[in-house]
Each structure stands twice: as structure tokens, then as C-alpha cells.
Amino acid sequence: MTPKPDDFRLERDGDAVIATFAPTGARYTAAGGQSAAQVEAPRDGRGDYVEDEVRAMAGKLIALAAQPTPSN
Length: 72
Hints:
By secondary structure, this protein is of the alpha+beta class.
């Protein structure tokens, strides 16, 4: 299966952005402008998802969340 953006929960912890992949519980974290996310192992297996695709989607979402918001 291909992961969708809705499969992730995004949150901030200080300067870190964390993307949690809901189907497996895997957490992808990038802090302080890191380009590569660190991975915390899934809690309940990989399921039907390809890890490389999940990691790529998490990276895209983290990059979007880390962008500064335009000021008014």
C-alpha cells in the first residue's frame, strides 16, 4: 500500500518536527534543519506498507511543516 498524508500525525517538540505513521506507530523526527529524519522503529510491524515509501512521505511532510510561515 502507498502511504497517504492522512496516515501521519505531525507535531512539534521544540525545534524538532515529528511525523508519526499511524498504521505502524513508526516515528520520524527531524530537528534543527536536519535534512534526514531519524527513525524510531514501528511498534506493531510494517503491515502492507513499503518502508522506503513511508520514509519518503514522512520526509516530505516534515520538510513542509518545518518551513517558516509567511508573516502578514
